[in-house]
Design brief:
By secondary structure, the chain is of the alpha/beta class. Helices cover 38% and strands 10% of the residues. 41% of the residues are buried.
Length: 501
């Protein structure tokens, strides 16, 4: 009996231990995992971000902002390990705010500890939006998607659905930044989609690779990334680097690249110019005929009766004819150089139009970042940006108008970085002229500066903080522009800013 009792007790103890172990295994969190850093180029964000450069004749490939912090060495931007949670659901929707007032957030920040402080910043201020990298400056998708885009994913944002849920809970309008034609990853993987020099993929002075806007394969790659963001619940897709590389007009005959369907195409501007020239020429000839007839008659009258009156009449007719001939329309420049230049403008504009059309089923707004100087010129054909044509194909236009990125003397300002209010004020005048000429202008939502341009010459820059950001926002408000985005590559924003003056 004693032996049987001991055996029964031992069996009960064993069962209890087994049950306890089973319960522990079912509730313990999985082992923390670390990001896959194989072949990842650091830092993930372009220090310059969306940039407004100096006029075309002053462009170069120099870096224009302080280097972004390396995620590997900055604990505030390192993604946090996975934690068990209930599977998140895609938010049903967000309300468009009274006016978008947003900040830039890298994929690393969005998936890491820094997101807590950024959420707190928005909660405590009149900010209400975040522009978050979904396809970053290297070309990586900042989370691990399924399907054809999986090979481009990196685990910067561990749980993108949970991220969207968090943004909704904090009433933050979510904008997905898609870096379009700056893409080192795709260029390296498929050189035929990029530019080649001496048998190697060409990179600019900063080591950045680009993909070719002439090729529809590259259009679709960026649209596919945008669709991923739309399906997650982002309410707006913002395309950045929608252009050819800076200074491309000086390299277009040196680099090897495909022009795809644009090889034998007549540029849109050529078609328009041909029509305008034909109409102007016909109108000119209509006006020339009576003047020529009047002169011929006056000359005949003078030949038959050389009087002072007939001489006066003939001289007047001759002058009228001579003056009119000076107005003869000049044939446009239809040279091959002009053709290639305008085909770049067509490619960039056509991409924007295509992307917007492809994204319509997802109900998202489409915005584009564009160089600020593009709004001050007829167009910037070297890089393929025409402000008016791009603006006609988007819901929102975001000119990058950082005061530090304008050359000395622009708008008559000796050192633009030292006068943020005046710089923004002068820019807004030019933009207003361009947008008012459109039948259906987009929302104006410029990028402004919250960083110090210490790379500039001494005396041509100042330290940026609350007062300088305030000045830019006030200048926008005074110009009737109530939406804006603030750029800092490291996602460190000045405290105490008056976002709604």
């Amino acid at each position: 009996m004693i032996v049987l009792g001991l055996l029964s007790a031992m069996l009960l103890f064993t069962a209890s231990c087994s049950s306890s172990k089973s319960t522990t295994e079912s509730t313990d969190p999985p082992a923390a995992t670390t990001p896959d850093t194989t072949d990842v180029e650091n830092p993930p964000a372009d220090p310059a971000g969306p940039t407004t450069t100096s006029p075309p004749d002053k462009q170069d490939d120099t870096q224009t902002d302080t280097p972004a912090t390396d995620p590997a060495t900055d604990p505030t931007t390192t993604p946090t390990p996975d934690t068990p949670s209930t599977p998140a659901t895609v938010p049903p929707g967000f309300e468009y705010p009274d006016a978008v007032r947003g900040i830039y957030v890298t994929g690393w920040s969005a998936g890491g500890e820094r997101m807590k402080s950024l959420l707190q910043l928005v909660d405590d201020t009149e900010l209400n939006a975040m522009v978050i990298d979904i396809k970053d400056d290297d070309g990586y998708i900042t989370f691990k998607p399924e399907g054809d885009m999986a090979e481009f994913g990196q685990p910067y944002i561990r749980d993108p659905k949970a991220l969207l849920q968090t943004l909704q809970e904090h009433h933050i309008y979510p904008i997905a930044r898609i870096v379009a034609f700056k893409d080192s990853v795709l260029a390296k993987k498929y050189p035929e989609l990029s530019y080649v020099l001496d048998g190697k993929v060409w990179r600019n002075g900063n080591g950045d690779g680009f993909i070719n806007p002439f090729l529809k394969e590259n259009w679709q790659h960026n649209v596919d990334a945008a669709i991923l963001a739309a399906k997650l619940g982002f309410q707006e897709i913002q395309f950045d680097y929608v252009r050819f590389p800076e200074g491309f007009e000086s390299r277009d005959k040196i680099l090897q690249y495909s022009m795809g369907e644009y090889k034998d195409k007549k540029p849109t501007k050529f078609v328009e110019q041909e029509k305008e020239f034909a109409e102007a020429t016909a109108k000119y000839k209509d006006g020339l005929t009576p003047l020529q007839a009047a002169y011929d008659q006056a000359a005949a009258d003078y030949d038959s009766a050389k009087t002072d009156e007939s001489k006066k009449t003939m001289d007047a007719a001759k002058k009228a004819l001579s003056d009119y001939k000076k107005t003869e329309p000049k044939a446009p420049d239809f040279s091959e150089k002009a053709r290639f230049t305008q085909l770049r403008v067509d490619a960039v504009t056509d991409f924007v139009q295509y992307a917007r059309e492809q994204l319509k089923p997802y109900g998202v707004k489409v915005s584009v970042d564009i160089f600020g100087y593009s709004a001050t010129l007829p167009e910037a054909p070297g890089i393929g940006q025409n402000f008016s044509r791009i603006s006609s194909n988007v819901d929102v236009i975001s000119s990058m108008i950082y005061p530090s990125h304008w050359s000395d003397g622009y708008f008559g300002i000796k050192h633009p970085d030292t006068e943020p209010y005046r710089l923004v004020q002068e820019y807004a005048k030019r933009e207003s002229e361009k947008l008012s000429a459109l039948s259906n202008p987009p929302i104006s939502r410029p990028w402004i500066q919250d960083f110090t341009a210490s790379w500039l010459a001494k005396g041509s820059y100042i330290k940026y903080g609350k007062d300088q950001v305030d000045a830019q926002i006030q200048a926008l408000k005074d110009a009737g522009i109530h939406e804006f985005l603030i750029w800092n590559a490291n996602n460190r924003y000045s405290a105490g800013v008056e976002y709604t003056p």
